[in-house]
Structures are given as structure tokens and as C-alpha cells.
Amino acid sequence: MTEFFFSDLMMGRLFRICVISALLLCYVVLSGALEHGERKKEQIQSPDKNSSRLKVKGNFTSSNDRRPKAVTPGKKVKSGSKRVFMGPRSDISCTRLGGICQPVRYICQDRYLKDKCSGAKTRQCCMPVQAWSMLCAGHHNRVRACDAYGCGAFNSQRGNGLYKAVDLVCDDYSIINTIFSGSLAGPVSRKDPAGYQFDGVKLLSDVHCVKIFNIRPYRYSGPVTQGEALGYLLPLQEQFPGITSHLELQMCDGTDPSPFI
């Protein structure tokens, strides 16, 4: 009886020891597995965190970067809801034409050219007076005097308005020369108050733009040099007997070309 009781007691102790050992083993295995899972999770998430940080940093710099952006000269850029005009960064566009940049409140001998100077819009390029070469071969640039059909000076009376061009004396079919180097920009035409149409060509450069009427140009486009033969004068005597034969010189902007001739 005593032996049976002692054997039963030993079996109970061994059972408890086995259960405790099994629980400890399970705890160790589970702890290792959890620790391995946490490490693996951190390794997987670490690139995402770096990339998210980079994205946030990129978004911050793009939205809060107040550094001025490079802008090409003479273009309009948006600044919020307003448009800001960015002019040239230097005066080289003016100086290479022989002009000088100055405030427009100063007197200019010739004329002001816009968008050629750096700084405020009130600072423009003043060009010096430069005489053009002779237009009509064999004639100086002489303004047509008054005859039975009117006067050839700028702002002279024409019909119900003022004449915004200058007539230069020239013989019928005489050669017309280029008055300054530039480019031909196509044909032009106009009608006078009586309905007569006068044809010609447009000549322009970086500084000047003129329309020359009552001539037949040899061509209507391409570069030309000062003094080059441009065309010939069309006859006027057939339609206007007794008129002083002439060509018509008009500035593209309607100003007076007299200072240049």
C-alpha cells in the first residue's frame, strides 16, 4: 500500500514537471517567432518610411520654395493671379542698335523703342537721328511741294483729314533704292479718298518700319541692304496729268518720317 502511494506521488510530480517544461518550451518558441516577425516587419517598412519622408520633403520644398525662377527676357509670367512683365536683363538690345537707355521723361532726338532696356517700363531705348540714304536714283530726298492735287508734306490737308505720310519727288520709272538695311515684309496697298489704289512694299529693320507706295518692287520678301535697288516708280501722269511724280513714304506706326530724310 505504501509503495503504491509513493509511486503515484512520483508520477504526479513527473507529470507537473513535463507540463511546466512544455509550457516553457512553447513560451521560448513563441517569443522567438514574435521577435523574428517584428524584425522582418521593420525591415519591410523601413524603405516606405524613407520614401515617405522624401516625398514629404519634396512636397514641402515644391510648395514653399520662394526662390525666384529663371524667366526668359521680354515674356509675361504668372505670379499668383497677376501677370508680371519681365523685361530684358541688360541694355545690350538697345546699345547694339546705337541707342541709349534712359527714362522717357527725357527728350529723345529721334524716337523711343520699347522693350529694349532693363528695368522699369518707363526706361526705354532712345535712338539718335540717322539720315536715310536716297530713295529715288538721281534725286535727293526732296519733299513734293504743293500742286493742283495737293501737298506732299506730313500732316498736310488731304480731303477731310491729315496726310500721315511724305511724298518724295521722283521721275516716272526711276529706280528706287533701299533706304536702310533690313528685310522686305510683303506687299502693301492703300486707297485715297477718291478711290485710287496705290501699291507698294513694306521694309523693316530692328529700328524702323516703313511702307513705300507707288512703286513696283523687284521682290516682296527677303533681306536687303542699304542702297540696293528695290524696284521702280510707277507712272502717275496717266491718271493725274500735271502732278509732280513722286513716291509715298509712310511709317508703319503713323509717325513723321521727315527727320530721317
From TrEMBL:
Keyword Plastid listed: no
Region Disordered, annotated ranges: 39-75
Segments crossing the lipid bilayer: none
Gene3D superfamilies, alphabetized: Glucose Permease (Domain IIA)
An annotated Gene Ontology molecular function: metal ion binding
DNA-binding found in the keyword field: no
Protein name (record): Uncharacterized protein
Protein species of origin: Astatotilapia calliptera
